[in-house]
Design goal:
Chain B: It is a multi-pass membrane protein. The complex is a heterodimer of chains A (about 140) and B (about 140). With about 140 residues, chain A is mainly alpha-helical. Helices cover about 70% and strands about 0% of the residues of chain A. Chain A has one domain. The longest helix of chain B has 25 residues.
């Protein structure tokens, strides 16, 4: 049950990324490139995705538990800190350089483009290195 | 091009429906970097099955669509240095920030999470500055 629902959710996610053009790096870089030939498609994708998701959050607040059991995720207690900012800036740099983020990487693995696999391999290496870097940021003395 | 915007909206609705199924069905947040990263660093060992099932769906449906409807031009760079540097930055950054466009963006902003909103502002700003620098100043992207 859990795995079937997860597969369905993943298929909707992948199908949506394919249809929306978000696996096309030109459309993603086109959204970021405000000084070039700006492409607003990404805003339509994000806006469209937030409609069912906002409804789902409202529904989850009125339900005791998810369909397949367990519990709903509690709002994150971690505040806005430097790890959120530093991590997001690093992510944004890579996203801007190539035009791929983690979801579209997975969705375009089957496109037959070796570049996707090279990017994916580097991303996995980065993800493996992140916990150690993250601990460093935790222990670093604040600048002030 | 308005056709692209409409396809973007329809695709977005599908993406959000996937997130809704994952939340209401499994009680989980649809964050691609978290789902993958948990498998890489072992923090997701306890629910590896549903992570793999989700990611299999994400990869397989587009593969099926490409096989039936024909190839997609993803306009991906062939520059190895950019691919590797970009992949490393995306991998490290999303795990330090604990989220990417799907987790912080789609799922976070739709629940009005301050973390999601701040993260999204920073990665879009950083992405915009990066493409401006590398495309219009250095001319390499």
């Amino acid at each position: 049950m859990r795995n079937a629902l997860a597969f369905l959710a993943g298929a909707l996610f992948g199908g949506g990324l394919y249809l929306s053009g978000m696996t096309d790096t030109a459309k993603v870089q086109g959204w970021l490139d405000v000084f070039g030939d700006w492409d607003p498609t990404l805003a339509f994708v994000m806006g469209g995705a937030m409609i069912p998701m906002a409804i789902a959050w409202q529904v989850s607040a009125r339900r005791a538990a998810p369909l397949a059991g367990g519990s709903f995720p509690v709002p994150p207690k971690a505040e806005v800190g430097r790890k959120l900012v530093i991590g997001s800036v690093l992510f944004g740099m890579g996203w801007g350089l190539v035009g791929l983020c983690p979801g579209p990487v997975i969705a375009s693995l089957g496109y037959g483009d070796p570049g996707v696999w090279i990017f994916a391999a580097a991303m996995l290496v980065g993800m493996g290195a992140a916990p150690a870097l993250s601990r460093r940021l935790d222990s670093a003395v604040p600048a002030e | 091009m308005p056709t692209d915007w409409i396809m973007g909206l329809i695709g977005g609705l599908l993406i959000g429906t996937g997130g809704a199924v994952f939340l209401l069905g499994n009680g989980r947040i649809m964050g691609a970097s978290g789902l993958i990263g948990g498998l890489v660093d072992g923090t997701g060992r306890g629910n590896a099955g549903e992570r793999i099932a989700f990611l299999a769906g994400t990869a397989l449906l587009p593969l099926l669509l490409v096989l039936t409807l024909g190839p997609v031009d993803n306009h991906l760079t062939g520059n190895l240095v950019l691919l590797i540097a970009g992949g490393l930055l995306v991998g490290i950054g999303t795990r330090i920030a604990n989220g990417c466009t799907s987790g912080h963006g789609v799922c976070g902003i739709s629940r009005l999470s301050l973390r999601g909103i701040v993260a999204t502002c920073f990665y879009i700003l950083a992405g915009g500055l990066t493409i401006t620098l590398f495309r219009h100043v250095l001319g390499v992207v």
